[in-house]
Amino acid sequence: MTYVEGFVVAVPTANKEAYRKHAADAAPLFKEFGVARMVEAWGDDVPDGKVNDFKGAVQAKDDETVVFSWFEYPDKATRDAATQKMMSDPRMAEMGGEMPFDGKRMIIGGFDSIVDDRTGGAMGYADGYILPVPDGNKNAYRALATKASQVFRDHGATRVVEAWGDDIPTGKVTDYARAAHKQDGETVVFSWVEWPNKDARTKGWEKVMADERMKPDGGEMPFDGKRMIYGGFAPIVEA
C-alpha cells in the first residue's frame, strides 16, 4: 500500500504565494526522485483545541497559517531511495536557501498506510488528522477506520487514508510525538479525507454525524480522542 511522507509547517500568511510557488517549482524535482503524488494544503478551517491542535504542533504565530502536506510513494524502499537523492542533489541545497517559512518548526515523518480507500474523483478540499494510538490497538484502530471510511465515502468523500507511524524522527523544536502528546507504547497516525470541494465536505460531515453507523457500539475507542488534532485544508499544489 501507499507509503506516506507527512509534513506540517507554519507559513507566514503573507508568504502564501511565495510558498505555493516554492512548492510548485520543487514538484518536478520531487517527482524525478520518485514521489508519486505531492499535495500542499493551506489551512482553512483549523480550530483551536483544548489539549493540542495543529497550531501548537508547529508553534504557529498569529500571523502564520498551518500547511498540511504529504508525499505519496508506492512503497518505503522508493521513499528511502528518494530521500537519499534529495540529500545529495545540489538543486535541493539551492532551494533550501530560499525557504519562505521557518524550517526548524516543520514536522516530518514516514507513515505506512493501513487504510487507503478511494471512490475516484478530483480533490478540492481535505480534512487532515494527527493522533496517537496505543500500539496494541493497531488492529482495532484499523477496523474502526475501515468502517468510518465507508461512511465518509458514502457521503461524498473521494478518498480516505490512514497511515501508521513508521519513521518518526525526534525534532529539536517540534515533532509528531509532541504534536500528539504521544505517550510510551503509542504510535502517531497521520491521516486525511479527500473531498471534491469545501461545500461537499460541509454537507458530507452533516450526513456523517447523523449516520447510525458512526454511533458508538458500546465498546471503548481504540485511541484517546482528546489528543486527536484535526483541521480543514484547501490544496494549493497537487502534482
Give the gist of this structure.
The protein has 239 residues and is α+β, with helices and mostly antiparallel strands. The protein has helices at 16-33, 54-57, 76-88, 90-96, 138-154, 176-179, 198-210, and strands at 3-12, 37-45, 64-73, 107-118, 125-134, 159-167, 186-195, 229-238.
Notes on the structure:
- This protein is α+β, with helices and mostly antiparallel strands.
- The chain has one domain: Alpha-Beta Plaits.
- Helices cover 32% and strands 33% of the residues.
- The protein has seven helices and eight strands.
- It has helices at residues 16-33, 54-57, 76-88, 90-96, 138-154, 176-179, 198-210; strands at residues 3-12, 37-45, 64-73, 107-118, 125-134, 159-167, 186-195, 229-238.
- Strands 1-3-2-8-5-7-6-4 form an eight-stranded antiparallel beta barrel, surrounded by four helices.
- The longest helix is centred in the first third of the chain and has 18 residues, at 16-33.
- It is globular and about 55 Å long.
- The two termini are 19 Å apart.
- The mean pLDDT is 96.
